[in-house]
Protein backbone atom coordinates (compact mmCIF):
# COMPACT_ATOMS: atom_id res chain seq x y z
CA UNK A 1 0.00 0.00 0.00
CA UNK A 2 1.44 3.39 -1.03
CA UNK A 3 1.80 5.99 1.71
CA UNK A 4 -0.77 8.73 1.16
CA UNK A 5 0.29 12.31 1.85
CA UNK A 6 -2.54 14.81 1.50
CA UNK A 7 -2.04 18.58 1.56
CA UNK A 8 -5.05 20.43 2.94
CA UNK A 9 -4.47 24.05 1.95
CA UNK A 10 -7.73 25.19 3.62
CA UNK A 11 -8.59 28.78 2.60
CA UNK A 12 -5.03 29.49 1.38
CA UNK A 13 -3.14 31.03 -0.34
CA UNK A 14 -4.89 34.30 -1.12
CA UNK A 15 -3.85 34.73 -4.74
CA UNK A 16 -3.73 32.61 -7.87
CA UNK A 17 -0.09 33.52 -8.33
CA UNK A 18 0.92 32.19 -4.92
CA UNK A 19 -1.18 29.07 -5.42
CA UNK A 20 0.53 28.31 -8.74
CA UNK A 21 3.96 28.87 -7.25
CA UNK A 22 3.29 26.52 -4.36
CA UNK A 23 1.78 23.83 -6.58
CA UNK A 24 4.62 24.01 -9.12
CA UNK A 25 7.32 23.73 -6.46
CA UNK A 26 5.70 20.61 -5.03
CA UNK A 27 5.10 19.11 -8.48
CA UNK A 28 8.70 19.62 -9.60
CA UNK A 29 10.26 18.33 -6.39
CA UNK A 30 8.13 15.22 -6.19
CA UNK A 31 8.61 14.12 -9.80
CA UNK A 32 9.69 10.50 -9.97
CA UNK A 33 8.64 9.63 -6.43
CA UNK A 34 6.93 6.28 -6.72
CA UNK A 35 6.25 4.94 -3.23
CA UNK A 36 4.19 7.92 -2.08
CA UNK A 37 0.85 9.16 -3.35
CA UNK A 38 0.79 12.94 -3.06
CA UNK A 39 -2.59 14.68 -3.19
CA UNK A 40 -3.09 18.44 -3.17
CA UNK A 41 -6.41 19.82 -1.89
CA UNK A 42 -6.57 23.51 -2.80
CA UNK A 43 -9.64 25.76 -2.55
CA UNK A 44 -12.22 25.05 -5.30
CA UNK A 45 -11.27 28.12 -7.33
CA UNK A 46 -7.73 26.86 -7.94
CA UNK A 47 -8.57 23.27 -8.86
CA UNK A 48 -8.83 23.85 -12.59
CA UNK A 49 -5.44 25.58 -12.72
CA UNK A 50 -3.50 22.49 -11.75
CA UNK A 51 -2.32 19.29 -13.37
CA UNK A 52 0.57 16.91 -12.83
CA UNK A 53 -0.29 15.89 -9.27
CA UNK A 54 -3.36 14.18 -7.84
CA UNK A 55 -6.04 16.58 -6.70
CA UNK A 56 -8.59 16.58 -3.92
CA UNK A 57 -11.37 19.01 -3.07
CA UNK A 58 -11.98 20.28 0.46
CA UNK A 59 -15.74 19.87 0.35
CA UNK A 60 -18.60 18.90 -1.95
CA UNK A 61 -22.37 19.22 -2.01
CA UNK A 62 -25.00 16.50 -2.15
CA UNK A 63 -28.02 16.69 -4.38
CA UNK A 64 -30.08 13.87 -3.01
CA UNK A 65 -29.84 11.13 -0.47
CA UNK A 66 -31.43 8.41 -2.48
CA UNK A 67 -28.55 7.13 -4.59
CA UNK A 68 -29.76 8.98 -7.62
CA UNK A 69 -27.24 11.08 -9.43
CA UNK A 70 -28.42 14.50 -10.42
CA UNK A 71 -25.96 16.30 -12.64
CA UNK A 72 -26.80 19.80 -11.55
CA UNK A 73 -29.47 21.76 -9.76
CA UNK A 74 -30.66 24.90 -8.00
CA UNK A 75 -28.15 24.95 -5.14
CA UNK A 76 -26.64 28.41 -5.03
CA UNK A 77 -22.99 28.47 -4.12
CA UNK A 78 -22.46 24.71 -4.17
CA UNK A 79 -20.22 22.36 -6.15
CA UNK A 80 -21.36 18.87 -7.12
CA UNK A 81 -19.31 15.64 -7.09
CA UNK A 82 -19.72 15.36 -10.84
CA UNK A 83 -18.20 18.82 -11.40
CA UNK A 84 -15.17 17.74 -9.38
CA UNK A 85 -14.87 14.42 -11.16
CA UNK A 86 -15.08 16.21 -14.50
CA UNK A 87 -12.12 18.39 -13.51
CA UNK A 88 -10.01 15.31 -12.82
CA UNK A 89 -10.32 15.52 -9.04
CA UNK A 90 -9.81 12.13 -7.36
CA UNK A 91 -10.33 12.75 -3.64
CA UNK A 92 -12.64 14.87 -1.52
CA UNK A 93 -12.24 15.81 2.13
CA UNK A 94 -15.55 15.32 3.95
CA UNK A 95 -16.41 16.04 7.57
CA UNK A 96 -13.39 18.14 8.46
CA UNK A 97 -13.76 19.48 11.99
CA UNK A 98 -13.67 23.03 10.62
CA UNK A 99 -16.65 22.24 8.37
CA UNK A 100 -18.43 20.55 11.25
CA UNK A 101 -17.80 23.64 13.38
CA UNK A 102 -18.19 26.60 11.02
CA UNK A 103 -20.64 25.15 8.47
CA UNK A 104 -22.63 23.12 10.99
CA UNK A 105 -21.97 19.97 9.01
CA UNK A 106 -23.78 17.10 10.72
CA UNK A 107 -23.09 13.36 10.55
CA UNK A 108 -26.24 13.06 8.43
CA UNK A 109 -25.01 15.59 5.86
CA UNK A 110 -21.54 13.98 5.89
CA UNK A 111 -23.17 10.63 5.12
CA UNK A 112 -25.01 12.11 2.13
CA UNK A 113 -21.84 13.69 0.80
CA UNK A 114 -19.94 10.42 1.17
CA UNK A 115 -22.55 8.33 -0.61
CA UNK A 116 -22.95 10.76 -3.45
CA UNK A 117 -19.20 11.14 -3.91
CA UNK A 118 -18.76 7.37 -4.05
CA UNK A 119 -21.49 7.06 -6.66
CA UNK A 120 -19.64 9.49 -8.90
CA UNK A 121 -16.31 7.77 -8.33
CA UNK A 122 -14.64 10.27 -5.99
CA UNK A 123 -12.69 8.90 -3.03
CA UNK A 124 -13.89 10.48 0.23
CA UNK A 125 -11.37 11.33 2.93
CA UNK A 126 -13.62 11.13 5.97
CA UNK A 127 -12.28 13.21 8.87
CA UNK A 128 -13.07 12.09 12.39
CA UNK A 129 -11.69 12.99 15.78
CA UNK A 130 -12.52 14.04 19.30
CA UNK A 131 -12.31 17.47 20.90
CA UNK A 132 -10.20 18.21 23.96
CA UNK A 133 -13.27 18.10 26.15
CA UNK A 134 -14.42 14.76 24.75
CA UNK A 135 -10.94 13.32 25.23
CA UNK A 136 -10.73 14.49 28.82
CA UNK A 137 -14.12 13.08 29.68
CA UNK A 138 -13.18 9.67 28.29
CA UNK A 139 -15.51 9.88 25.30
CA UNK A 140 -13.04 9.31 22.47
CA UNK A 141 -14.22 5.81 21.54
CA UNK A 142 -17.86 6.85 21.63
CA UNK A 143 -17.20 9.91 19.45
CA UNK A 144 -15.23 7.94 16.87
CA UNK A 145 -17.84 5.19 16.82
CA UNK A 146 -20.72 7.62 16.23
CA UNK A 147 -18.87 9.68 13.61
CA UNK A 148 -17.74 6.65 11.60
CA UNK A 149 -20.94 4.64 11.90
CA UNK A 150 -23.14 7.57 10.93
CA UNK A 151 -20.89 8.69 8.09
CA UNK A 152 -20.77 5.21 6.56
CA UNK A 153 -24.44 4.34 7.01
CA UNK A 154 -25.61 2.62 3.84
CA UNK A 155 -22.12 2.53 2.32
CA UNK A 156 -21.72 -0.92 0.81
CA UNK A 157 -18.82 -3.29 1.34
CA UNK A 158 -17.83 -2.93 -2.31
CA UNK A 159 -17.58 0.85 -1.87
CA UNK A 160 -15.72 0.83 1.44
CA UNK A 161 -12.35 0.24 -0.25
CA UNK A 162 -12.55 3.70 -1.80
CA UNK A 163 -12.81 5.44 1.54
CA UNK A 164 -9.89 6.96 3.41
CA UNK A 165 -10.37 7.78 7.08
CA UNK A 166 -8.41 10.68 8.51
CA UNK A 167 -8.00 10.59 12.28
CA UNK A 168 -7.74 14.24 13.23
CA UNK A 169 -8.10 14.95 16.94
CA UNK A 170 -9.56 18.45 17.02
CA UNK A 171 -7.18 19.58 19.77
CA UNK A 172 -4.18 18.72 17.58
CA UNK A 173 -5.24 20.71 14.52
CA UNK A 174 -3.22 23.86 13.95
CA UNK A 175 -2.06 23.94 17.56
CA UNK A 176 1.45 22.51 17.35
CA UNK A 177 0.20 20.02 19.93
CA UNK A 178 0.42 16.91 17.77
CA UNK A 179 -0.97 13.61 19.00
CA UNK A 180 1.63 11.33 20.55
CA UNK A 181 2.77 8.19 18.78
CA UNK A 182 1.15 5.93 21.41
CA UNK A 183 -2.15 7.74 21.38
CA UNK A 184 -2.27 7.82 17.61
CA UNK A 185 -1.56 4.12 17.49
CA UNK A 186 -4.38 3.31 19.92
CA UNK A 187 -6.83 5.54 18.03
CA UNK A 188 -5.95 3.87 14.74
CA UNK A 189 -6.62 0.48 16.34
CA UNK A 190 -9.97 1.72 17.65
CA UNK A 191 -10.89 2.93 14.18
CA UNK A 192 -9.95 -0.42 12.63
CA UNK A 193 -12.10 -2.18 15.24
CA UNK A 194 -15.06 0.06 14.40
CA UNK A 195 -14.66 -0.67 10.68
CA UNK A 196 -14.34 -4.37 11.39
CA UNK A 197 -17.63 -4.27 13.30
CA UNK A 198 -19.30 -2.37 10.45
CA UNK A 199 -17.89 -4.52 7.63
CA UNK A 200 -15.34 -7.23 8.31
CA UNK A 201 -11.74 -7.81 9.36
CA UNK A 202 -10.35 -7.72 5.85
CA UNK A 203 -11.87 -4.33 5.07
CA UNK A 204 -10.70 -3.05 8.46
CA UNK A 205 -7.14 -4.15 7.75
CA UNK A 206 -7.02 -2.71 4.25
CA UNK A 207 -8.82 0.62 4.75
CA UNK A 208 -6.39 3.52 4.47
CA UNK A 209 -6.28 5.43 7.73
CA UNK A 210 -4.24 8.60 7.86
CA UNK A 211 -3.39 10.99 10.69
CA UNK A 212 -3.71 14.77 10.71
CA UNK A 213 -2.98 17.44 13.30
CA UNK A 214 0.18 19.55 13.46
CA UNK A 215 2.16 17.23 11.21
CA UNK A 216 5.58 18.61 10.21
CA UNK A 217 8.81 17.33 8.72
CA UNK A 218 10.16 16.45 12.15
CA UNK A 219 7.31 14.23 13.32
CA UNK A 220 6.35 12.69 9.94
CA UNK A 221 8.63 9.71 10.10
CA UNK A 222 7.57 8.56 13.55
CA UNK A 223 3.91 8.55 12.53
CA UNK A 224 4.57 6.47 9.46
CA UNK A 225 6.97 4.02 11.07
CA UNK A 226 5.45 3.66 14.54
CA UNK A 227 1.70 4.17 14.57
CA UNK A 228 0.20 1.97 11.85
CA UNK A 229 -1.15 4.90 9.82
CA UNK A 230 -1.10 4.70 6.03
CA UNK A 231 -0.42 8.36 5.48
CA UNK A 232 -0.86 11.91 6.70
CA UNK A 233 -3.19 14.87 6.22
CA UNK A 234 -1.08 17.99 6.38
CA UNK A 235 -2.55 21.46 6.92
CA UNK A 236 -0.28 24.35 7.92
CA UNK A 237 2.95 22.66 6.90
CA UNK A 238 1.63 22.05 3.36
CA UNK A 239 1.57 25.79 2.68
CA UNK A 240 5.32 26.03 2.86
CA UNK A 241 6.70 24.28 -0.22
CA UNK A 242 10.08 23.47 1.33
CA UNK A 243 8.53 22.05 4.49
CA UNK A 244 5.98 19.99 2.59
CA UNK A 245 8.66 18.61 0.27
CA UNK A 246 10.76 17.79 3.32
CA UNK A 247 7.81 15.82 4.73
CA UNK A 248 7.59 13.77 1.56
CA UNK A 249 11.35 13.28 1.30
CA UNK A 250 11.61 12.20 4.93
CA UNK A 251 9.70 9.02 4.06
P1 LIG B 1 -2.68 21.22 10.62
O1 LIG B 1 -4.11 20.91 9.95
O2 LIG B 1 -1.67 20.34 9.96
O3 LIG B 1 -2.45 22.67 10.36
O4 LIG B 1 -2.81 20.92 12.08
C1 LIG B 1 -4.48 19.60 9.62
C2 LIG B 1 -5.89 19.58 9.09
O5 LIG B 1 -6.73 20.34 9.58
O6 LIG B 1 -6.21 18.83 8.16
Structural commentary:
The chain has 251 residues and is α/β, with parallel strands linked by helices. The protein has one domain: Aldolase class I (TIM Barrel), CATH 3.20.20.70. The protein is 42% helix and 16% strand. It has twelve helices and eight strands. Helix 5 packs across helix 7. It is globular, with a radius of gyration of 17 Å. The relative contact order is 0.15. The site of 2-phosphoglycolic acid (PGA) has 13 residues, from strand 8.
Low-pLDDT sequence parts? none
Average pLDDT across residues? 96
Assembly context of the chains = single chain
CATH topology assignment: TIM Barrel
DSSP strand (E) fraction? 15-25%
CATH-defined architecture? Alpha-Beta Barrel
Beta strand count: 8
Bound molecules: 2-phosphoglycolic acid
Q: Rg, please?
A: 17 Å
Order of helices and strands: EHEHEHEHHEHHHEHHEHEH
Text of the CATH class: Alpha Beta
Can you give the helix content as a percent range?
Answer: 40-55%
The major beta sheet can be summarized as: 8 strands, parallel, barrel
Main β-sheet, spatial strand arrangement: 1-2-3-4-5-6-7-8
Q: Shape, please?
A: globular
Number of domains: 1
Distance between the termini: 14 Å
Helix segment tally: 12
Annotated CATH homologous superfamily: Aldolase class I
Going by helix content, strand content and strand pairing, the class is: alpha/beta
Function: Involved in the gluconeogenesis. Catalyzes stereospecifically the conversion of dihydroxyacetone phosphate (DHAP) to D-glyceraldehyde-3-phosphate (G3P).
Protein name: Triosephosphate isomerase
EC number: 5.3.1.1
Family: Belongs to the triosephosphate isomerase family.
